[in-house]
Write a structure and sequence with these properties.
mainly alpha; elongated
Length: 118
Amino acid sequence: MKKILDEITFDIGYIRGHTLQPQWFKILKVFILFGVLYGYSALFGLKATIIFFAVFLLMGLIVHFTYRNKTKRYTVSWLDFVVVEENGELKTQRIGKYYYSAVMFNVIISVVVSQVLS
């Protein structure tokens, strides 16, 4: 259990400190998510929204853990995740088309599943 908590703490620290997205976007995407969930709930109801969010969260975790695994805990370049060494320190560059394509795919699948199941 301690190892799992250590890994979660590591990921949270990485997510807070990464430079893959501008700082303002890290904050804005929280409001975007709440806005989308509110709008989805208004259009399709609470049950569909809960299903949408659950599927989106599950698929988001799959994308997260895939990137985490393939980049060996964010230390190796893979697809659009680019790691460079600057002054003896590993730095990551902005993520791009593969990551955001996966997010859009997750949204589409989440909408379809929530509509079918609700």
